[in-house]
Write a structure and sequence with these properties.
The protein has 209 residues and is mostly helical. The chain has eleven helices and no strands.
Length: 209
């Protein structure tokens, strides 16, 4: 039995009425870089890394001209830090040289930036531009599969398409954050809080992990 929209949304509103992006940023490119860095890494670790990185390199020009070895040192505790260091310099360079120092909001232009895939693009446009888009991270994948909203075999793109139909546009960004928080703090991959979950009856994995 698939959970009804109203039941899920009401429960998420009860648990996390103020769910939001937990990455720290003050500029458009800082947000984009932070999202890119968050791949296979926690937001907490990313915030630690960007605090070091943006303090040492406070402008796009500084990042463009930075020594890659030093960038690597700033973010060395993040997963895939060597590739991410290349992406940081690449993003800064292209934004300056091609987009006059402003992160583009056109989807194809965003995707053209180093390290920016569909999830990063959607997350950025939803957070910075308030566009009704969905970022399918590991938490969203897990929750949507456990609640049988999507199929176990669905990839992130298929999950995104199904959730875009399941969640109304006017609460898409909010629900996206709520699902992430639900997966991050409540319905975890390991030791989920099944005994205190009010929607556990709809979960395909209830009490078996």
């Amino acid at each position: 039995m698939t959970i009804k929209k109203e039941i899920l949304f009401n429960y998420l509103d009860e648990l996390y009425p103020n769910a939001h992006c937990e990455l720290n940023y003050s500029k458009d490119y800082e947000l984009l870089i932070a999202i890119m860095l968050s791949a296979q890494t926690t937001d907490k670790a990313v915030n630690k890394a960007t605090a070091i990185l943006f303090n040492k390199y406070p402008t796009l020009i500084d990042l463009k001209n930075a020594d890659i070895n030093d960038i690597e040192k700033c973010i060395s505790f993040l997963g895939m830090y060597k590739n991410k260091a290349k992406h940081i310099i690449g993003i800064a360079t292209i934004i300056i040289d091609k987009f006059s120092g402003v992160v583009p909001t056109n989807e194809s232009d965003l995707i053209s930036l180093p390290g920016v895939g569909n999830k990063t693009k959607n997350c950025y446009l939803a957070e910075w531009c308030n566009k009704p888009l969905l970022a399918v991270d590991t938490h969203v994948q897990r929750i949507s599969k456990r609640l049988k909203i999507v199929s176990q075999k669905d990839d992130p793109k298929a999950i995104e398409e199904k959730l875009m139909k399941f969640i109304p546009n006017d609460r898409l960004i909010k629900t996206n954050h709520q699902l992430i928080w639900f997966g991050r703090y409540f319905c975890k991959a390991i030791s989920p809080n099944c005994k205190n979950c009010k929607i556990c009856e709809f979960c395909k994995e209830k009490n078996i992990i």
